[in-house]
Write a sequence for this structure.
């Protein structure tokens, strides 16, 4: 059988998307739908002293104006429910919307106008008059230094204060040292699709269409805030236009929609506009990172110090874990990784495009480049000299690691041999040519997941899992996996996602969707197939009667005996003879590859915060699936699951004008088995594009005097456009990870961004001799 | 946005009449800037007069040389018009460096003349802004002003004029043809836009009841040796940090005449006559260009985040001159 898994199969939902038939969360035209428009605070700190809604209420079409004065009371999320994104993480746990007059940041939601039409709602929202008692806001990390504290743990129990060996001795032993401070600005996710929520009540039942990376988590968080049982709330999210982290937590607008719908007794839709996407739906914290490295003469690292200062809000704590990859990237006996945090009057940060790894590798991998310069050593050689054969922090074996090959192939692809270590030595016309590289790294996360697969007599197979496709191609890779497991053409597979009625699946954070939902769908499919084969083997009317199960192969829905292909049966005939409407296979797999196994952000782990409704029916039955048993028996605590890669760039710098053009990007990734070459390439290329944005142009600016967001549209917050695109090379090692799962795939969503900013900064140095330690590298910094 | 009435004008006279009849009316052509401003409550006209039916799309030669571009010609049509490309490459290049292909297809030449600043404080009606609400104060001067002007600023406003096209037109001494209730008149491009001074809300000399009908570009044979260079934070679809529109008349090794205008750095499209004087009669060399650049930015004043623009504008100008002057 020709395996589909791994092939560059076209997206199964491609036609739906390009024809506009794919329904995104804002696109459900419910009967009697009303529209909500959000009013936001225009100060960063203080209290509402007056909120006058009379003019707004008098506008044509206006149904109601909700403020803290007339809104329903919400329930605080319990620690259990609010502790992890999977079980439902409200973005700002101490800021339930419209509950009081306090203002903690610019753009805080303070009122919702509900009207017959979108235009009426928007206009009336502009007419809500607000006065404030303004307080002095806390604006920047530097000004709040004395109030900085060191948090114990990050999201989901991540270790953020880590050390090993003796850092003082490590530096004392060093022959060469460098120490520099790097900073990254605030970034906003900016998915193409804004946040959107539609809420509809039917008696005490609530249906929500929500753009979320965590269908179950969002359902649970909303239910808790409304004081409801989760099974009274159905949440649907069939298609997403990207998330990049901002749709991982549940933000205020998602509960404002059901509050508004209850208030007016009609379904209500709330869509954040682009400006609102810069205020109240998460962001990446600014980081100030001090990195010190010590090494022997041959480049062996004797000490690594990585101290990060980050920021959070006054209404929740999210720590950008900038140093977390530092402890395991390279062999070094002495390591000290720390994070300190301050509270500012800005919206709460949240996971953003490789949280931690993206800004962290920028600082760390640029510092390594600085060390390489000081040692007069090739940057690739420096990394090879410190290659970690096993996880240097906990001593665990890597589940699989082929980083050496990544370096070698990446260097080949970029033409590394043409690099001259002397800055500015290579020219192309008027441009200075620079080469730079960095290591890419991202955890190989896998979380618990359940799935169901039904085979029907008409030849169709329907796989179901309550995870979501955030635009990465989840529908497609799950269809490929099911097709291979069943021996059916992909055209006969239907995949259902994004509905809490389905068996519980993972949230889409930490690049874990494919690695978690993939095995679940495969095992459910194998279960269904096995059950049907057993039926045939026991059925005297089947040509397969009496054969051993292991001898049966399937191709195109035709089951036959391996050594006697004439003896055959079909799924359809077996089902028809048995008079069955369908055969169902199921899987409910409770595994995790995270360091903090057991307490990680894991929606589907049994007994933590509930799961999909149909998933519940499966509990207790999972053990009957022998494939699940085998999968769960692997002792994953013995291994470290990490994806690695090497990213190389070539830049052209116009030294007179300070402009940098990224000319070529080569990424070679070790992500275990590639499930779909096309979607995987898309992911790595997309990561590289956002890496270019991070390195050269993206930054959210707050007004230096009042802390309000200044850059709040895509004209002022720059992301790369087509004209900025280099030529991309994306290659994969494509060797299955033998321990992560039976499908051997680690995630590929986020690793693509992790080495790019450092590689570009290093290439700019190689071109110009200028070391830019503050992103983005804009023309003014190179003049 | 504020509710408004949409009306349609059938000809120039009816457009002018409709404007005169309602002082809270605005003309709309491509709408690529005005609709944004309306969504942001920066503009809240009661009436929008759609002028797309007017016969102002033509691009045609003018007797005795030069070219006349109808106010409703799209930025794309103007940029790719063979005569514009041949006689005034600087204008074609300036147009094509602006916005995106989709916006250029919608945007008109007349509308481009009326384009308003991209100052983020101007665009956010919850910030004080003297341009939006006279007397309310300027948020940009003490605020984040990296994109702001260094030439022609006042203590009331430092907003940058955003147009690329107008920079080229300033270098080319274009004439803006307008029609009002009293008939037609001509406003030289350099007088069309005005400095902010104490009245930054007044941006042009166009009266409320006047319609722009065309832009005329006089004959300038040496404009075939012209160039527009725009430096920005990304390769496309972004406003200038600094730009330069230049045309050089070089004979042998001597510059006989020069035209220079700068963009991205001025509160209006910035014609640099002092720099032109430096060039005229001087040898066509890089040192000459550098002297001209120094002269062009002599009066520049930087603010907290944009002082780099002074040096960047000089380098941009030197590079543009080198390209137009055949030194590279």
């Amino acid at each position: 059988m020709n395996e589909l898994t791994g092939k560059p199969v076209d997206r199964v939902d491609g036609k739906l998307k390009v024809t506009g038939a794919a329904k995104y969360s804002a696109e459900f035209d419910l009967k009697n739908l009303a529209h909500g428009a959000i009013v936001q605070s225009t100060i960063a700190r203080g209290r509402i002293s007056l909120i006058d809604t009379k003019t707004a209420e008098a506008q044509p079409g206006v149904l109601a104006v909700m403020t803290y004065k007339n809104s329903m009371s919400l329930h605080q999320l319990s620690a259990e429910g609010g502790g992890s994104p999977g079980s439902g993480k409200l973005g700002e746990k101490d800021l339930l919307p419209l509950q009081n007059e306090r203002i903690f940041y610019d753009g805080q939601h303070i009122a919702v106008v509900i009207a017959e039409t979108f235009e009426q709602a928007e206009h009336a929202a502009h007419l809500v008059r607000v006065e404030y008692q303004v307080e002095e806001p806390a604006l920047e990390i530097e000004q709040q230094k004395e109030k900085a504290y060191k948090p114990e743990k990050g999201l989901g129990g991540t270790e953020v204060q880590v050390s090993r060996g003796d850092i003082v001795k490590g530096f004392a032993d060093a022959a060469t040292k460098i120490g520099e401070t790097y900073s990254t600005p605030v970034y906003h996710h900016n998915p193409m699709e804004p946040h959107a929520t539609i809420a509809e009540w039917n008696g005490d039942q609530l249906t929500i269409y929500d753009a979320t990376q965590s269908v179950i988590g969002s359902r649970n968080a909303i239910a808790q805030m409304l004081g409801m049982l989760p099974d009274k709330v159905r949440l649907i999210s069939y298609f997403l236009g990207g998330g990049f982290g901002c749709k991982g937590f549940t933000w205020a607008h998602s509960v404002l929609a059901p509050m508004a719908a209850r208030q007016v007794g009609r379904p209500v839709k709330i869509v954040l506009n682009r400006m609102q996407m810069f205020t109240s739906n998460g962001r990446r914290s600014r980081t100030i990172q001090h990195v010190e490295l010590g090494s022997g003469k041959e480049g062996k690292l004797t000490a690594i110090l990585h101290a990060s200062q980050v920021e959070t809000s006054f209404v929740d704590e999210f720590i950008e874990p900038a140093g977390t990859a530092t402890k395991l990237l390279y062999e070094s006996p002495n390591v000290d990784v720390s994070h300190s945090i301050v509270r500012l009057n800005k919206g709460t940060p949240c996971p953003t495009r490789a949280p931690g790894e993206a800004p962290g590798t920028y600082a760390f991998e640029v510092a390594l480049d600085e060390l390489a310069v000081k040692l007069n050593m090739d940057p690739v050689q420096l990394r090879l000299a410190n290659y970690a054969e096993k996880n240097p922090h906990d001593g665990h074996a890597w589940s699989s690691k082929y980083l050496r090959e990544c370096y070698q192939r990446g260097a080949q692809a970029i033409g590394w041999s043409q690099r001259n270590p002397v800055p500015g030595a290579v020219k192309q016309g008027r441009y200075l040519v620079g080469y730079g590289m960095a290591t890419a790294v991202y955890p190989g996360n896998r979380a618990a997941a359940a799935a169901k697969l039904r085979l029907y007599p008409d030849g169709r197979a329907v796989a179901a899992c309550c995870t979501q496709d955030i635009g990465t191609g989840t529908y497609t890779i799950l269809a490929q996996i099911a097709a291979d497991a069943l021996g059916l053409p992909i055209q006969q597979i239907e995949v259902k996602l994004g509905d809490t009625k389905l068996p519980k699946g993972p949230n889409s954070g930490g690049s874990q969707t494919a690695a978690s939902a993939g095995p679940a769908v495969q095992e459910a499919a194998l279960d269904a197939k096995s059950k049907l084969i057993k039926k045939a083997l026991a059925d005297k009317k089947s040509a397969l009667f009496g054969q051993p199960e292991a001898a049966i192969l399937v191709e195109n829905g035709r089951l036959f005996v391996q050594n006697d292909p004439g003896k055959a049966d079909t799924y359809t005939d077996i089902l028809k003879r048995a008079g069955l409407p369908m055969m169902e296979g199921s899987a409910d797999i409770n595994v995790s590859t995270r360091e903090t196994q057991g307490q990680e952000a894991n929606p589907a782990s049994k007994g933590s915060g509930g799961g999909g409704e149909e998933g519940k029916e499966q509990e207790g039955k999972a053990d009957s699936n022998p494939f699940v048993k085998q999968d769960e028996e692997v002792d994953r605590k013995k291994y470290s699951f990490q994806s690695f890669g090497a990213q190389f760039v070539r830049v052209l710098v116009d030294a007179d004008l300070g402009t940098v053009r990224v000319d070529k990007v080569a990424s070679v990734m070790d992500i275990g088995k590639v499930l779909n070459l096309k979607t995987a390439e898309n992911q790595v290329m997309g990561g590289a594009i956002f890496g270019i944005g991070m390195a050269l142009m993206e930054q959210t600016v707050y007004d230096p005097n009042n802390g309000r967001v200044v850059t709040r549209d895509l004209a002022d917050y720059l992301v790369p456009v087509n004209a900025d695109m280099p030529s991309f090379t994306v290659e994969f090692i494509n060797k299955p990870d033998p321990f992560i799962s039976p499908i051997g795939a680690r995630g590929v969503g986020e690793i693509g961004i992790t080495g790019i900013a450092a590689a570009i900064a290093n290439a700019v140095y190689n071109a110009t001799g200028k070391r830019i330690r503050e992103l983005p590298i804009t023309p003014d910094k190179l003049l | 946005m504020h509710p408004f009435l949409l009306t349609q004008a059938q000809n120039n006279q009816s457009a002018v009449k409709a404007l005169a009849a309602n002082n809270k009316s605005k003309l709309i052509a491509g709408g690529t800037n005005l609709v944004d401003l309306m969504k942001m409550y920066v503009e809240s006209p009661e009436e929008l007069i759609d002028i797309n039916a007017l016969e102002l799309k033509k691009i045609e030669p003018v007797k005795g040389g030069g070219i006349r571009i109808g106010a409703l010609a799209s930025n794309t049509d103007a940029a790719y018009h063979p005569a514009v490309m041949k006689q005034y490459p600087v204008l074609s290049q300036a147009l094509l460096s602006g916005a995106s292909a989709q916006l250029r297809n919608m945007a008109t030449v007349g509308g481009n003349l009326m384009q308003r600043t991209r100052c983020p404080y101007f665009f956010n009606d919850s910030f004080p802004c003297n341009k939006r609400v006279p007397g309310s104060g300027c948020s940009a001067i003490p605020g984040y002003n990296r994109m702001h002007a260094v030439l022609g600023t006042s203590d009331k406003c430092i907003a940058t004029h955003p147009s690329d096209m107008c920079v080229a037109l300033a270098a080319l001494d274009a004439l803006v043809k307008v029609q009002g209730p009293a008939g037609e008149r001509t406003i030289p491009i350099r007088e069309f836009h005005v400095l902010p001074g104490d009245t930054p809300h007044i941006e042009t000399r166009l009266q409320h009841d006047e319609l722009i009908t065309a832009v005329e570009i006089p004959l300038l044979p040496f404009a075939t040796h012209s160039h527009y260079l725009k430096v920005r934070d990304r390769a496309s679809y972004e406003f200038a940090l600094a730009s330069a529109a230049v045309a050089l008349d070089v004979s042998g090794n001597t510059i006989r005449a020069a035209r220079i205008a700068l963009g991205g750095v001025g509160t209006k499209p910035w014609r640099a006559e002092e720099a032109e004087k430096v060039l005229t009669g001087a040898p066509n060399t890089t040192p000459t260009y550098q002297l001209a650049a120094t002269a062009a930015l002599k009066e520049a004043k930087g603010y907290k985040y944009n002082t780099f623009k002074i040096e960047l504008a000089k380098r941009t100008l030197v590079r543009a001159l080198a390209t137009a002057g055949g030194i590279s």
About this structure: The first strand of chain B starts at residue 5 and ends at 8. The mean pLDDT of chain B is 98. Chain B is about 30% helix and 20% strand. Chain B has three domains: 5-50, 59-114+163-217, 224-324.
